[in-house]
Design brief:
Blueprint: E1 19-24, E2 27-37, E3 42-47, E4 57-60, H1 68-73, H2 75-98, H3 105-113, E5 122-125, E6 130-136, E7 140-145, E8 148-153, E9 157-159, H4 162-170, H5 178-190, E10 194-196, H6 202-218, E11 223-227, H7 234-245, E12 249-254, E13 264-269
Parallel strand pairs: 10-11
Antiparallel strand pairs: 1-2, 2-3, 3-4, 5-6, 5-9, 6-7, 7-8, 11-13, 12-13
Length: 271
């Protein structure tokens, strides 16, 4: 049989939370889709592994496949494109360093004061929302905002500390008013510290979990349980990845085996 050209998955057929395959320097790897970026024809993915944690990364749709054989066939092309991309990136950085200084003293002072951002930094947007940087380049950054991810301009960001992020999140709780004080006791009685997201898609589950945690913070409920089932483990991984980016989450892990084990995530809020 002759060479069969690898065919990537079409972006409109991608399913968030589903397993796909892509290329890497170590060979074919299995990944879970976290977010779709139709404007750049790319996706945010995370390695599908129970043994080790890894940070999410962006991969172009040209290298997302339904089966490992296709990903393996595309490996050489991906390596060539990746080396070319890194080479061009280094060239731009070198040219930027050699560029003559033509800016005014005022502009130079502004450049010196401009903050630098990296993956994993906690940041605050100009609308006071707190998030974590997942990917970043010179102009744009992919930010995890609670259960959602979005792309924003770098100039909209300001770096903040863990303690500041936690304080901002806690300050979202409404200040006591007459109506609030009248209703808070009933809300605490009605609140169930357990949520069931089994059968939901990844983005739907994250939205419900985000709202669940916001309500728990408002009611000062620290011990929570999230029922996601076992299945392939993809939904559990997506939920826990989100929980680790939330500054009010102190810890999360499996429930006791007798009470549900890996099918339930136990969450303790640090509030």
């Amino acid at each position: 049989m002759g060479y069969k050209k690898p065919i990537p998955v079409e972006i409109n057929k991608i399913v968030i939370g589903k397993k796909y395959y892509t290329c890497s320097y170590s060979g074919t790897i299995s990944v879970i889709i976290l977010k779709i970026f139709k404007d750049t024809n790319s996706v945010l993915v995370k390695i599908n592994s129970k043994k080790k944690e890894s940070n999410p990364f962006v991969r172009h749709m040209n290298y997302i496949f339904d089966n490992p054989e296709m990903a393996k066939s595309a490996g050489r092309t991906w390596e060539h494109d990746e080396r070319k991309r890194k080479k061009e990136q280094k060239k731009k950085q070198k040219e930027k360093g050699k560029r003559p200084q033509t800016s005014t003293p005022e502009e130079a002072a502004q450049q010196e004061q401009a903050p630098t951002f990296s993956k994993g930094d906690l940041v605050q947007l100009d609308n006071k929302t707190v998030g974590e940087i997942i990917e970043i380049n010179e102009k744009n950054a992919v930010i995890a905002l609670g259960g959602l991810m979005t792309t924003v301009k770098v100039e909209r960001l300001s770096k903040i500390s863990n303690s500041a992020a936690k304080k901002i999140t806690q300050n979202r709780i409404p200040r006591p008013s007459s109506n609030y004080l009248e209703n808070i006791s009933q809300k605490r009685v009605d609140f169930k510290p357990e949520i069931d997201v089994r059968g939901l898609r990844g983005d739907e589950a994250l939205m419900k979990v985000s709202e669940f945690i916001d309500t728990a913070v408002m009611l000062n409920m620290k011990d929570l349980r999230i029922l996601h089932g076992t299945g392939t483990g993809a939904l559990r991984q997506i939920i826990r990845d989100f929980l680790k980016t939330n500054p009010v989450v102190g810890s999360c892990g499996d429930e006791h085996v007798q009470m549900g084990g890996a099918g339930i995530t136990v969450v303790k809020l640090d509030i």
